[in-house]
Amino acid sequence: MIKNSMILMLCLVLIGSFFGTGQLAQAVGEGPNYNGNETIKNERLHSYDEMVNFLEKVEKRSDEMTLEVYGQSIKGRDLYLAKFGEDEDNPTVLFLTQQHGNEALTTESALEIIKYLTNNSKGVKEILENINVLIAPRLNVDGAEGDVNFSLEDYVSGTHTRYNADGFDLNRDHVNRNQPETKALHENVIQKYEPDYMIDFHHQGTQTTLGDTDEYVSGSILYPTNEGVDPDVRERSKQLGAIVYNAVDAKGYGLLSKYRGGTAPTISRNGLALEYGIATLLFEMRGMADHYYEPYVLGQKSNGYLIQQGVTAMKAVLESFVDGSIETVDTSFWDTLPESGSKGEEFEDEH
Ligand SMILES: [Zn+2]
User: Fold this and answer.
1) Residue 67 falls within a domain, yes or no?
2) What CATH number did the domain enclosing 46 receive?
3) Which listed residue, 55, 233, 266, 321, has the most CB atoms within 10 A of its CB?
4) pLDDT at 236
């Protein structure tokens, strides 16, 4: 039944794209642009081994970064945390990426930021004098490798999946922590280093629009919306979002909507704010590396600007602790920021 409706939806989408408006000029305006039957080329992304090699190499030549293994995945892959600074008087920010294995570009952004933070520049020195930075790239290391205990034959590329090796959604596991990846993140990163701020980086489908306009967004953001979250924590979360919004909005490719998200504490945006008082932001980038629902999959054309969008967001947040704007930035844009709309058929609300 589910399968049938999926096929029907796929047909509708295919018909839609056949008779559709064709290619738009601007990068953000394009729909799924891998052309449907072309092989998705994900080789440009760091594989797990390449990511580990990169992290180890950077640690070897850097005085600022400490690399830590904070746990293991179901398939026994080590989970890595890159740490910068451990000054108790400074606030701590955590950048988390790829809880969903098929949401890959945000990890590329995180690796770029790791490179940036080890460049010994004056700007970086200032940042690290003011804030401790934790970067946890790719929580779902098994799903990102496609090394899982279920078939990926329905997937467009067959290389990445949202779920961990046992088919669980890690971003629905932040209360019970039944999965080794989420358990390790909570016990060995969050409870140990007590971050004050956290951005959780994801990807959504390719068809999300700014409100009911025709404009495709480059991303969507949201603060914790669970009603139990302390109002001060929510306000600091909105400030975190304002720093990100202002930085991304200033870029030519940047167009953000307000993510339409739920209140469940099992997702990190709500759960971490509720349980630990961490100011959180969800940042959803456009398009996925792989999915069984074709319109979610983004080809290669937009990868560069989406990686940059993540870098821009992270850098802006780090710099906001140098000039103090994280505590003074105006959050009123949230009241007028259009919510996400959708042009095509949305498969379901799972991001
Ligand atoms: Zn996600």
Assistant:
1) yes
2) 3.40.630.10
3) 321
4) 98
Q: Is residue 284 flagged as an active site residue?
A: yes
Say how many Å lie between the CA of residue 257 and the centre of ligand 1: 16
Exposure b/e, 99-125, CB count within 10 A at least 16 = b: bbbbbbbbbbbbbbbbebbbeeeeebe
Is 347 within a domain? no
C-alpha 99 to ligand 1 mean position (Å): 6
Mean pLDDT of 261-277: 97
For residues 26 and 331, the model is more confident at: 331
Q: Which domain holds residue 170?
A: 2-342
193 belongs to a structural domain? yes
Q: Residues 145, 284, 319, 346: which is the catalytic one? A: 284
Between CA 192 and CA 276 the distance in angstroms is 12
Q: 351 in a domain, yes or no? A: no
Q: Residue 290 burial by CB count (10 A; 0-12/13-18/19+): exposed, middle or buried?
A: buried
Task: Quote the radius of gyration of the chain (alpha carbons, Å).
Answer: 19
Neighbours of 153 (CB within 10 A): 7
Average pLDDT score over the chain: 87
Domain count, the chain: 1
C-alpha 298 – ligand 1 centre gap (Å)? 14
Q: How confident is the model at residue 308 (pLDDT cuts 50, 70, 90)?
A: very high
Kindly indicate the confidence band of residue 21, based on its pLDDT and cuts at 50, 70 and 90: very low
133-158 residue pLDDT tens? 999 999 999 999 999 999 998 888 88
> Is the Cβ–Cβ distance between 190 and 92 less than 8 Å?
no
H helix runs in the chain, sequence order: 2-18, 48-61, 105-117, 122-130, 141-145, 180-185, 191-193, 231-249, 268-276, 303-320
CA 285–ligand 1 middle distance (angstroms)? 9
